């Protein structure tokens, strides 16, 4: 038996299994928003690679899951892929960007002030040392 014959045999076994699948059976097989692949393989009697590599079986499985989703047995696909970011989320992101920009500007101003104050402190310490050497310390 060659690969095409095996592929056709796997497809026939899958279609027989899918035809006999009840809604209750499908509900019990749901895992992660799709049908449990390991349970499908046990029921059909094939390896897991058949579900990924055999194009006819892969297409039939996708159609089966789409039909189950349409009937409400499987949950809808990921919501984040379907819906764009809400306007509220976009607004929050833009206000966060503006706040970050303001904080960066404020941080730069404070760093400049600290640098200026250190320079002035060093100058005053030098003057204090000169006054102490001359003996004219204030009371």
TrEMBL record:
Record key words, sorted: Coiled coil
Coiled-coil segments on the chain, per record: 93-127
Protein name: Uncharacterized protein
Domain of life: Bacteria
Family matches, as NCBIfam families: VPA1267_fam
Keyword Coiled coil: yes
């Amino acid at each position: 038996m060659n690969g095409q014959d095996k592929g056709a045999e796997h497809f026939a076994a899958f279609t027989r299994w899918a035809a006999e699948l009840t809604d209750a059976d499908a509900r019990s097989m749901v895992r992660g928003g799709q049908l449990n692949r390991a349970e499908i393989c046990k029921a059909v009697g094939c390896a897991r690679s058949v579900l990924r590599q055999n194009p006819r079986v892969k297409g039939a499985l996708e159609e089966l899951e789409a039909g189950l989703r349409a009937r409400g047995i499987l949950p809808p696909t990921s919501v984040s892929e379907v819906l764009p970011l809400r306007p509220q989320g976009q607004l929050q992101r833009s206000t966060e960007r503006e706040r970050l920009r303001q904080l960066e500007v404020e941080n730069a101003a404070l760093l400049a002030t600290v640098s200026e104050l250190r320079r002035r402190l060093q100058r005053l310490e030098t003057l204090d040392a000169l006054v102490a050497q001359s003996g004219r310390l204030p009371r």
